[in-house]
Design a protein that fits this description.
Elements lengths: L6 E4 L3 H9 L3 E4 L5 H7 L6 E4 L9 E4 L7 E4 L5 H5 L5 H11 L5 H6 L2 H7 L5 H8 L3 E6 L2 E6 H4 E3 L2 E2 L6 E8 L5 E9 L6 E12 L2 E10 L6 E2 L1 H7 L6 H15 L10 H22 L1
Helix pairs in contact: 9-10, 10-11
The structure holds flavin-adenine dinucleotide (FAD).
């Protein structure tokens, strides 16, 4: 199908974008990898699209060393999945983002789709929202009336649902850098190489003196929104990152953190089992080579 008729606005500045959004019934066109599909199916029929692809500076990926204890990576609205896959970010955070990005769709989609578009879209099986929640990312929203910052943990409220108001541009994501000694891992279950995940787990574990001093674990599609697996993290705390700790964390994540929800492919028991398997794989990857 073809999209329903709409007005097209090519923005050349942030002001153009927020002005178009303030007019109402307007959607941001970023990578277009989800929006155009929806418009072709006519599940989305916005009156207006504001194309942000020509706005100078929107593709910036900066390090802000003054943000928090270790600094933060700040991504603008046009930083594409491919930038992370290519290793544009430093340290353990960069390595985590690189491993995750490789699992998103396939190369042509990664060349167009954006981190912020994925966060704004909030697909329940998308990888970036779980990364943002696990890392305590902060999301900057901008509208004609002003700006605000929302913690990723609060931003996602359900499948395709966020705290973003329709007149707000998601202007930046601030991802805290991971401390020295952090090892990362990612594991995903999906039907084909290009399809969305059925479930996925990511881990960033900081080890000092042979003991786990911090852990950040995220789960994709293990609940109705992306979640941080706090029980799994607690099971690792203060001990070595060995097989026994990984098994305890995987069991805690599956039993206490996962909130199975109706899925076409699996009942609740299967989902908990798969979460345990994916957590074990992600944590073993972090221990062995992350
Ligand atoms: C075949 C296929 C497979 C895919 N597989 C995966 C996968 O495995 N994992 C995955 O995560 N994704 C997957 N995707 C989706 C892809 O990653 C998209 O790129 C992503 O969901 C949206 O990013 P985008 O930049 O293309 O956004 P768009 O399609 O341009 O926009 C999506 C929505 O977000 C809004 N939006 C975009 N940017 C902003 C902003 N800055 N502020 C406010 N609103 C904004 C738009 O208005 C629209 O409502 C797949 C897509 C396809 C077609």
């Amino acid at each position: 199908m073809k999209p329903a008729p709409f007005e097209y606005v090519a923005a050349h500045s942030t002001g153009d974008v927020v002005a178009a959004l303030a007019a109402g019934d307007t959607r941001v066109l970023a990578g277009g990898q989800s929006l155009v599909l929806e418009m072709n199916y006519r599940t989305a029929r916005p009156a207006r699209l504001v194309d942000i692809n020509r706005v100078p500076g929107f593709d910036r990926l900066d390090l802000d060393r003054l943000d928090g204890a270790d600094g933060a990576l700040v991504a603008g609205p046009l930083v594409r999945h491919r930038a992370f896959e290519a290793g544009a970010a430093p340290g353990a955070l960069g390595e985590l983002l690189r491993r995750v990005a490789r699992h998103i769709a396939h190369p042509p989609i990664r060349a167009r789709g954006t981190l912020l578009g994925s966060l704004a879209y909030a697909h329940p099986a998308a990888e970036w929202p779980a990364v943002a929640v696990a890392l305590d990312a902060r999301l900057e929203l901008l509208a004609a009336g002003g700006s605000r910052t929302v913690a990723a943990a609060e931003f996602f409220t359900g499948p395709f649902a966020t705290l973003r108001r329709p007149d707000e541009l998601l202007h930046a994501a601030r991802l805290p850098l991971l401390p020295a000694g952090t090892r990362v891992g990612f594991a995903e279950q999906r039907r084909t190489r290009a399809s969305f995940a059925q479930l996925a787990a990511l881990a960033a574990v900081t080890v000092a003196g042979g003991r786990v001093v911090a852990a950040r674990i995220g789960l994709v599609n293990a609940a109705r929104r992306p979640i941080r697996a706090r029980a799994a993290e607690l099971a690792l705390q203060d001990g070595p990152l060995d097989d026994a700790a990984i098994a305890r964390a995987a069991a805690a994540g599956a039993d206490l953190d996962a909130e199975p929800h109706p899925q076409p492919y699996a009942d609740a028991g299967y989902q908990r089992h798969a979460v345990a398997v994916l957590l074990r794989r992600a944590l073993a990857e972090a221990r062995d080579g992350g």
